[in-house]
Amino acid sequence: MLLTQDTLQSIASDLVDTPTEASFLYPEKILQFGTGVLLRGLPDYFVNKANQQGLFRGRIVVIKSTSAGTADSFEQQNNLYTLCIKGLDEGKEISSYEINNSISRVLSASESWQEILKNAENPALEIVFSNTTEVGIVMSEDLVDDNPPKSFPGKLLAILYHRFKHFAGDITKGLTIVPTELITDNGSKLKKIIFDLAQQNSLSADFIEWLTGANDFCNTLVDRIVPGALSPADYVKTTAMLGYEDQLMIMAEPFRLWAIEATSDRVKQRLSFAVADSSVLLVPSIEKYKEIKLRLLNGTHTLSCAMALLSGFTTVKEAMQNAAFSQFIRLLMQDEIGPSILNTAISQNDVKDFSSKVMDRFANPYLEHKWESIALNYSSKMAMRNIPLLDKWYGSHSEAPQLFALGFAAYLYFLKSERKDSHYIRTINGRTIEIQDESAAVFYEAWQQPETVVHTVLSNVGLWNRDLTKFPGLEESVDRQLKQIIHNGALQALTILEHEK
């Protein structure tokens, strides 16, 4: 049995949450660029949750912009799909299943552009979602009359201009635009491109004024791992349990966060789905949440990645099953990274709460997050995520952060490679890893003099934009931990340090 609106009544509601009949009748309030799993696993999840509580009462028209795949699966299933939520919550394994009916239609930009423009005439339309990847928010040579414009900003401008003309510049008919692309200041960058495109297209001053006064572009931060389709084995097991087939079924972790910069009452009123879940944050600034995620989630990944690889672990969940490694992660966040990010906006409770969730996320048995992937572009990640913490640490400490030093020493040892043609290769316990790091050559050269490698790397201003040997005790601590790793192995070095602490 295939999941469709007709087969819903045959599905056991004690196993999966099914949508209410009323929610199929809600008006189309949202235009969404993209059919990807992040959109379906996060924004569309929040909309569906609010709809099922009778709070938002609006559905989504999806614009499929790419040529990859078709909208057939959505059409065959009346745009229904199952979201499987699997992972840990406070250390306990959880799983839940829900059928999402937030999407009303999926339209192809290349095949149904005129219908998409017609949809811009809908008076109930209030919101735009997007996830067109980090290369989607770019300037182009698009013309507003192209059928359709090639770029996402070009399409959005054409829709806004059509809406402006249809409603004769009505100030109440603007849209709240909420991009989820993983770039800094996504809303501000999209807004600038839209205005630049409008100028490039010589659109009227009245339209520019409407664009400014009637529309809102929100900067956002999204955080949820949505791996997407289940593995073939998990799919067979899940569909057998639920009693139906679903070509659009996806999985997501329990953790979710959507921070949206919203200062006006107009934005808050339109984004009313936020009231259904405390993980949607309508806040004056998202900087606090960006900092917490960058340092405690991404930064912890970076400082533990080499330790994991040198210890022979392949995935994050595998490493977290090791008591010493799990303790390293916890102490790194609790004792060093956390205290380094405290300020007037970030409290100890913020750090404690997010750190606890990171432990659950790292240990999620349903995620196959490979350390080798985390090690891509390692040096730039270290420079951006971790090195800035040193200033904050030394602002209140006179001694070096020892867990940081261990993580950095492991990173340094991981980048001790062999050069083969133009490639840099690292072999660990017989396993070969190609180093994909923009500074691989720098580390290769530094390791030609192993007795001075710590000083050479820490003092390299080209890597860090500063001389890290100026931080008291850091060079000595990294050097000591590097020797421990080389002589005793990464896990033993970790165990020794934890006993010392």
From TrEMBL:
Residues of the Mannitol dehydrogenase C-terminal domain: 286-485
Gene Ontology cellular-component annotations: cytosol
One example GO MF annotation: tagaturonate reductase activity
Keywords: NAD, Oxidoreductase
Coiled-coil spans in chain: none
GO biological process: mannitol catabolic process
Enzyme Commission number, as recorded: 1.1.1.58
Signal peptide positions on this chain: none
Pfam families for the chain: Mannitol_dh (PF01232), Mannitol_dh_C (PF08125)
Sequence ranges assigned to domain Mannitol dehydrogenase N-terminal in this UniProt record: 28-263
NCBIfam families: PRK03643.1
Name under which the protein is recorded: Altronate oxidoreductase
Organism field: Sphingobacterium thalpophilum
Gene that encodes it: uxaB
